[in-house]
Task: inverse folding
């Protein structure tokens, strides 16, 4: 049971890490500065969540 929970938590952290890196690729492609900043903040939030997990 604890092995399943460990794998699930690890997958959640991995998903957050990958999504934050993908959002970092799009940072300078947004047409408006506000969208650029929103993508940056979302990526940083996902990175922080994956580190916490």
Result:
């Amino acid at each position: 049971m604890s092995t399943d929970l460990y794998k699930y938590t690890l997958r959640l952290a991995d998903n957050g890490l990958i999504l934050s890196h993908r959002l970092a690729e799009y940072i300078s492609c947004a047409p408006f500065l506000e969208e650029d900043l929103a993508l940056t903040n979302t990526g940083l939030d996902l990175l922080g969540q994956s580190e916490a997990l």
About this structure: DSSP finds two helices and no strands in the chain. Residues 13 and 33 are 28 Å apart (CA to CA). The chain has one domain: 2-52. Residues 2-52 form one domain.
